Amino acid sequence: MNPIGKFINKVRTGAEKAIDRTQDAVGNAVDNVKDAAAAGGRKVGQFVDGFENAVTGTARGVGNVVGGAARGVQEFFGGGNQPDRVHDGKLVGAGGETFPPGTPLSDIPGVTPANNPNPESTVLYVNGILTSKDAQYDSLQAIAEATGSRVIGIHNATEGMGADLAQCVKDKLDKGTNPAVDTLADALYTEIKAGRDVHLMAHSQGGLISSRALNDVYNRLRIEDGMSKQDAQALMGKINVETFGAAATTYPDGPNYVHYVNRGDPVPAMFGLGPVPDAWNPIADGGKGSKLHQFNEFHLNPFDGHKFEDVYLKRRVPFEQAREGNFNQ
């Protein structure tokens, strides 16, 4: 079972009955979190911390059973120790070593294929939710082996299921700050302004982060650099983008896109390009000239159909082949 399924089952079985018994008491704390989230402009951590305090205070007077429920809810909203947060927005290279945002890509020793320590091409990769830095490193190695490229990660840190999902909502609305968005946007802008091509791959929330960062780059070219729409899109044509089970519905024109969507994956079905984009969601837009590869791989646990290495990476074909609409392996 993948991390999402495991966590949902853990919360459901460990706290379900206790939460039912204290619905009214804890409900006030939940409403406070919702109000804080709706207000916007605050970091996820701020309303999470407020939620933790409210739930902890409520639970103190109603016994150990309720205390267990509160701990389950705290964990859901990212409470307690969150060691992955320190890596948020950092660049990840060989051996899982991290580098601060803004580090030139040429200065980062990337992850390379086992049989080729000096590949000519470089891929940037942005991970999805519930993925630690070490788990992302495993994906970087898998990408290196599959593509024959040097791979550098831009880390989207996990702070717990609830906090990660709240961040996805804010990314959807283009609200608040996401360090991974800022790091990716800066890296893309720096590379294309220097005349270099960029190859970007993204999974799940990573696709949402990529969509937001690409829009930031476009706006920067238009507003800060004074480029025309046509010139900005032409320069962004130096960016090749591959998404896998992405949670983004729209992408700006300019880059060259290939989108992989498993019809058995609820994430792109509900939040991304959908199982049949034009019919399912009329506003879905993969970017002008994008290529969409839809395939069928269904699992008893639908979130198993969302896995990056086990499902999506196995379906990938070389980028230029995919751009020709040929997904035969």
Sheet of most strands: 8 strands, mixed
Q: Give me the side-by-side strand order of the main sheet.
A: 2-1-4-3-5-6-7-8
Radius of gyration: 21 Å
CA distance, first residue to last residue: 27 Å
Low-confidence stretches: 3-63, 73-77
The total beta strand count reads 8
How large is the share of residues in beta strands? Answer: 5-15%
Oligomer: single chain
Q: What's the tally of helices?
A: 13
Helix and strand pattern? HHHHEEEHEHHEHHEEHHEHH
The level of helicity is: 40-55%
Q: Give the integer mean of the pLDDT values.
A: 83
Structural class: alpha/beta
Tell the overall outline. globular
What does this molecule look like?
The structure is a single chain. Helix 2 (23-39) packs antiparallel against helix 3 (44-60), helix 3 (44-60) packs antiparallel against helix 4 and helix 7 (179-193) crosses helix 8. With 329 residues, the protein is an alpha/beta fold. It has an eight-stranded mixed sheet, with helices on both faces. The chain has helices at residues 3-21, 23-39, 44-60, 64-76, 133-147, 161-172, 179-193, 205-223, 229-236, 266-271, 277-280, 308-315, 319-323; strands spanning 91-92, 98-99, 122-126, 150-154, 198-203, 239-244, 256-262, 291-295. The chain is globular, with a radius of gyration of 21 Å.
